[in-house]
Amino acid sequence: MAKKQKSEMSFLDHLEDLRWHLIRATLAILIAGTGAFIFSRFIFDTIIFGPKHMSFPTYKYLCKISNYFNVDSTFCLDAFPFTIQNRTMGGQFSADIWTAIYAGFVIAFPYVVYQFWKFISPGLLPNERKHSRGFIIVTTLLFFIGVLFGYYVITPLSINFLGTYSVSSEITNEIDLGSYISLVRSSSLAAGFVFELPIIIYFLTKIGLVTPEYLRKYRKYALVIVLILSAIITPPDVASQVIVAIPILILYQLSIYISAIVVRNQKRKEKKNV
User: In what way does this protein cross or attach to the membrane (predicted)?
Assistant: First the structure.
C-alpha cells in the first residue's frame, strides 16, 4: 500500500509518523553514544578535562593579551588551585554513561535534525521546500559553532573565574566530578542551542508570530535579555559577559535580516497569486 500523503493523514497517523522519527533519532544517539563510551578515556582526558589545564589554547591566548598590556592575570597560572574528586561509588561510572549519551547527541545532531526535517518537510509547499534545502546544513553548522564557542570561550572563562575564586586561604577547592562535568556540558550545549536563534526566528516568521518590525521595535529589550543571559552563563565579570554578549547580539541582528527576507518573499508570492 502506498504511503499516505501528509494532507491525507489523521492526527493519530501524524503521531505514529512522529514516533518513528523519534525512534530513529534516539537510536542514532544511542549508537553514537556507544562509540563515545568506547573512547571515553580520550573524551575525558582530552576534551572534558582540557579546560582544567593551563595549556588549554584559550588560556594561552588570554595570557598573551594580559602580558601585552602588562596586566597580572589568572590566565597565566602554572595550574589551577583545585582538584576534581569523586565521592560516590558509582559516580565515575554514572558520569561515563551520561557523558557518552550527551556526546552521542552532539555527534548524531545532524541526523536528529534530518529526522525533524523529514517530519515537517512534507507539510511545506514545493516552493517552500525548495528554498529550505539548506536547513539541515545551516542548523547543524550553527549548533556546532555554538558548541565550540561554549567550549572554547564560556567554559574556560567560567572555570578560570570559579576555580580561582576564594573567600579564605583556609579553604581548599575539591570540586565534585559531577559539578565540573555539568559546567562543561551546560556551557557548551547551552551555547549550541542559543546559536540556533536565526533558525527559530525563521520558522516563527514563516508562521506569522514574528516580524522584522517587531524584532527591531524590541531590540533594546533584547539587549537587556542578552546581557542577563550572558550574566547567567558566564562568570560575574564585565569582560566575560561582553565576550559572550557580542555573538548573541550579532545572531539577533542576523535574525532580523532573515525575518525581513522571509516577509519579503511572502509578499512577492502574494502579489503573484493576485
Answer: Multi-pass membrane protein
Cα separation, 144 vs 141, in Å, equals: 5
Q: Cell triple for residue 109?
A: 545532531
| pLDDT tens for each residue of 20-77 | 999 999 999 999 999 999 999 999 999 999 999 999 999 999 899 888 888 878 888 8
pTM for the model stands at 0.86
Which residues lie below 8 Å from residue 129, measured CB to CB, with a gap of 6+?
121
Beta bridge partners of 176: 85
Distance of CA 249 to the CA centre of its chain: 15
Q: DSSP letter string over 29-76?
A: HHHHHHHHHHTHHHIIIIIISGGGSTTSHHHHHHHHHHHHTT---GGG
Residue 178 contacts residue 235 (beta carbons within 8 Å): no
Average pLDDT over residues 224-246: 67
